[in-house]
Design a protein that fits this description.
By secondary structure, this protein is mostly helical. It is built from seven helices and two strands. It has a single domain, classed as Orthogonal Bundle (Arp2/3 complex 21 kDa subunit ARPC3).
């Protein structure tokens, strides 16, 4: 259990680091967070993957500057990125299920499955954005520009996971 808790903490830190790797966009930046969230679920499984994401969100909620651009606090958790952030535990859990159930053994089906998880994040994020920006602006600014990056990050998450699985077996 100690090892799992330590790994969950390390993945929470990885998510925080990846949040700082961002491309400024309006209304939300593009970051590497979703790559790290998926990888946490893939590597740690459902329970500990969700724990790592929850720890990350709790750190943000108590004021640690772990969100993109060093943002933190409850205002940041309820701002424009709230829908995306709310999806993180869900997709970490689903990635954990996928890592145990076999659809990730071949590259293209795996990338498609992980891209679907990215789509969940983007859909929840865009849905949240509609509250203040309207449907058209949320889709054009909070969904569509992120689709190519989601596919690339899905492939990168799968490659990283496969590499870690191979290292573990060696």
């Amino acid at each position: 259990m100690f090892k799992s808790a330590l790994l969950a903490t390390a993945f929470a830190a990885l998510i925080a680091i990846c949040a700082q790797v961002s491309v400024p966009m309006v209304p939300v930046p593009m970051t590497l967070q979703t790559w790290a969230v998926l990888l946490a679920g893939l590597v740690l499984g459902v329970r500990w993957g969700v724990a790592s994401v929850t720890l990350y969100l709790l750190a943000a909620g108590v004021g640690l500057p772990v969100l993109s651009d060093g943002r933190a606090g409850l205002d940041a958790l309820t701002g424009p990125t709230a829908g995306y952030l709310a999806a993180f535990p869900i997709v970490a859990a689903l990635a954990g299920v996928m890592s145990r159930s076999g659809p990730l053994q071949r590259p293209w089906p795996a990338i498609a499955a992980l891209a679907l998880l990215h789509a969940i994040v983007l859909a929840m994020g865009a849905a949240w954005l509609t509250r203040g920006a309207g449907v058209e602006a949320a889709v054009s600014g909070g969904l569509l520009p992120f689709l190519p990056g989601a596919v690339v990050k899905s492939g990168a998450a799968w490659l990283a996971w496969r590499g870690l699985v191979r290292l573990r077996r060696a």
